[in-house]
Amino acid sequence: MGLLSDPKNRVKFIVFVSRHCNKLCFLTYLVGLAWFIALAYAPMNEKTYFSENALLPGLVDSEYSLQRAAERFYDDAKDESKKHPRTIPIDWISNEMTRLGLDTYVQNYSFSYPLNIFKQQTFTGRNVYGILRARRASNTESVVMSLPLRPPESILNKNHAGLALMLSMAKYMRAHTYWSKDIIFLVTEHEGIGIQAWLDSYHNTRASTFINGSDLLGRGGSIQAAVNLDIEDSNIDHFDLLLEGLNGQLPNLDLINTIVRLCRKEGIVPTIHNIAQHYNLESYEGFEQSLQTMLLMMWSQLSGSASGNHGLFHRYHIEAVTMMGVKEKRGRNNHGFYTMGRVMEGLFRSLNNLMERFHQSFFFYLLPSTERYVSIGMYMPPFGLLVVGCLIKAIELWASYQSSQPTVEGEETDDAVAGGDSRDQDDKKQSLSRGLLSIAPVTIISTMFGMVAYYGAEFFIATASPFKMSPGEGLLYGGVAVFITAMFYPRLLSRADKDASLGPNWKVLKSMTLIMEGLVLFSTSLMNISLATLLAVTMVPVTVWIQPTKSKNYTTILSGEYRLLRFLQAIPLLLIAPMTLTIIATVVNTYTKNPYININSLVKDSYDEVQNVLLVGAVENQLLGNWTWGLMTLIVLPNWLMFWGLLWTGHTSLE
Predict the structure, then answer these.
(1) What φ, ψ does residue 337 adopt, rounded to 5°?
(2) Torsion, CA 282, CA 283, CA 287, CA 288, rounded to 10
(3) Choosing a second label site near 607 at 20 to 30 A (CA), which of 60, 316, 382, 454?
């Protein structure tokens, strides 16, 4: 702090930054990007460890042996499901839970979709849950085993194997008396909507005005942790761990470490995004696989959508994870209910040992493999280097603007000099004030377009029906229309301010816009490092580089050169626009999932996926509280439009 508090040192610092600004921006970005990528290399990250010693994973002998009962539950669940093609067999599940000795309850709820998608049509659903009361404690704490059950008509995994495993675990746990926490077995309908309705009612809150759940007739203790099951078949190849929660939240790392340790003990391979840990992490192949795992985790996290039902527990400070049992077509492993049950037994016995909530291990991290982690203390320094170029450039521009302000010259008497100094300070303050006020029109108009994009979603969807378009198409075309319209606002300002001296001062505009960009990126990184990193990697080099190329004094010879420079800067600026980034990311995601040979199929599927991404983002914003839609429309889009206005309305020269 002494460097900036001492006036002499502050001047030296500003002179140094101004002299080497471009070199510093380029160097910090390059070093930050290389450093961030290198974090996937084993010597650059750390091996996972247990911070909560009370978990004691795997130190007890597993006793689960109800695989035959699980197989019977599995067959019965499939038979019952055939009788309910459009719903789930709630009554059968309730009867089975009651027969096993659980306190069983059914919750009814209703919900409607926001943005008038189905014209305020109300849908209904039901959840069923059973509570195994702790016999050795006062029922003040509980853990949850949940699963989403899907009807036969659903294109997703029906999860009959998960239900069979849950019921067999309830039968096993009911026969033992060492449980010190209530165990809640929860089956939900309608994916995340059902779990949100149950959580709202359990905690007497209402996170969304579109979901209305009935009061719960039975409750357990305060929920400490939750495990969500999603199992494809009675025989699986490995357990894939889904970690990403709503708005990029992650479960406590100790919970992940416990699951990985127990899977290793029972011989099931734990994976992250279906990638197992490489046997030699320090080899090139090991680094490549670790980097792929870390990037896939970041890719999944950046949207802000939960990768499973577990993601909705995080907002209640409940550590949760989804364990997806994956059956490979050519998998060499074949693990049945016996092995899966032993893993679940060990996991819940470890959770049963908890003396307090998870709090000691990391909540902010990236995983290059199942047993290596990159904590917030490791990834923030390279991220800071990626973004600091914005602040360096902003300081250089502001210092340049201040030094260009007029000063009082000439020799005067002492009284005159004193009065001149006072007038000089007043003039400089007024000049700085005018400089800040000159960017007000650009700032206000950019913010207004962001508000139109955010609040106009319902209007775009409503106008889709008369034109026989789907809601997704209406939202896509409406967003594109707003984006294209916003691109022409600099021309409006140029016509209004024919005198160049009345237009926005480009140095002030770019300095303030870069500061805003840096604040947005640093703030976003504290919750969703993946989204912040994507924006930083794509936006920072372009926004630091661009500057206006519209001269105050046009000449016939130079006008063509100015236009060429302007359009050369406009192309990369258009590529980092929020709408363009969304389209590019969707195309990349579609191609990664299915490497198409036919370009027509890629275009068609990407077009459908873009509609789905926009629609899900807008719906989740109001239905579940996903912040990404608001962040991109209300903050990132106006910030980008200010850079766009800078390119076309600022004034400079080629000198």
Answers:
(1) -60, -30
(2) -170
(3) 454
